[in-house]
Design a protein that fits this description.
The protein is an alpha/beta fold and 415 residues long. It has 3 domains: 149 residues, ATPase, nucleotide binding domain (Nucleotidyltransferase, domain 5, 2-Layer Sandwich), CATH 3.30.420.40; 152 residues, ATPase, nucleotide binding domain (Nucleotidyltransferase, domain 5, 2-Layer Sandwich), CATH 3.30.420.40; 44 residues, no CATH class. The chain is 42% helix and 16% strand. It contains 14 helices and 10 strands. A 5-stranded mixed sheet has the order 3-2-1-4-5, sandwiched between helices. Strand 1 and strand 2 form a beta hairpin. The longest helix is centred in the C-terminal third of the chain and has 28 residues. The radius of gyration is 21 Å and the shape is globular. The two termini are 33 Å apart. About 7% of the residues have low confidence. Bound molecules: 5'-O-[(R)-(carboxyoxy)(hydroxy)phosphoryl]adenosine and zinc ion. The site of 5'-O-[(R)-(carboxyoxy)(hydroxy)phosphoryl]adenosine has 21 residues, from helix 5 and helix 6.
Length: 415
Amino acid sequence: MSGAYILGIESSCDETAAAVVRAGEQMISNVVFSQIAMHQPYGGVVPELASREHLRAIVPVVRKALADAKQTYASVDAIAVTQGPGLAGALLVGITYAKALAFALEKPLIAVNHLEGHIHAVLLEERQKGNHELKFPALALVVSGGHTHLFLAKETDATWSYENIGHTRDDAAGEAFDKVAKLLGLGYPGGPVIDRLSVHGDAKAVKFAFAQLKHPDRRTVKAKTDNDKLESPPCRKERDRDGAPGSGQSSAGSATRRHTNSERFDFSYSGIKTAVLRYVETHDMKASVEARRKALAGISKPTLEDYLANCDKQTLDLVASFQRAVVDDLVRKTLAAAETHNIATLLVTGGVAANNELRQTFEREGARVGIPVFFPSRPLSTDNAAMIAAAAYPKFLAKDFAGMDFSAEAGMVLR
Ligand code: KG4
Ligand code: ZN
């Protein structure tokens, strides 16, 4: 078997991960150690705890990835590691270990942007299935707990470049799932629970009013004068800041106007979280939320039946309506961007890409407008290191290696 074997290391948030990928197209091993259980009681990722757990896990996780791949430290061709965006302290654990390995083993070191990794998770799996012909122009929606971005992705002479044509102005979509789950007493992380509960509620029961995002993003305007740098938020943890309510989502199906090529396709998910909170307050649901929170806290690993036993119809309807609104907004804006840029391929990736309704809606609407949509498998939708090793392969071929002096970039931009 030919092709470079790259050891990927990922520690940007609350997953310590390592993987071996051959030639950017074959995942040989993929080990993910999730810290979710440890952060659960706090309702979100605690940065200091994340760093400490990465320190504990990094060596065994890398050893297991090598052993599963029947590789050794000496046999791999390069070491790739996430440089950012993410939690600085968490990123530094992976970076420091990768540097030490590269130095001791005299192997090339490759620094990878986490968002580029999410995009390459889809490409890796498509190549693994034998699909080597990606049609351009390609548009990638990276939608996770820390990010909601639209990137035009280009490949020129095996080198990838990206143009951001949309991002969230406040909360990421996954962040909204997590905050809504938290305020409904459903625990953390919210996405998987809301995904499973939504099929039991009526998605038309609660109407969420969305406004158009008409004014320019003040952060982008400022960033333009500031060397065009709009930094990514670090990871899921810094999301307890509550953004301005109602600054604007727009309802699905209302996008009839044409967009110009320079137009941005921004998102906003802070308002819908506030709308859910208001609904809970005005419908006297606080007592039942507290009862549910207590009941679920007493169960170590709640099953779907446990959640259902603690949710009344009103809560299930609210959850289903919330999910439908977010999914419709993501799909509508992404397809509007795809139409404007004559997109031939759509890639949907990141933790929220694991969502069943999001996948079904993208598949249905993509087929309707004739744009093929590709997702990673569910294990590669959320954070992993196979995506880092896959994104590193074009850089390996181009000898785009990192020096020993590079450091973590918490707000790293993808371009
Ligand atoms: O990509 P990821 O593992 O980490 C970040 O880079 O943020 O994404 C985690 C996020 C969390 O907000 C989680 O609630 C969300 O992805 N998520 C989901 C689902 N599974 C995970 N959201 C909706 N539906 C899901 N099935
Ligand atoms: Zn991620």
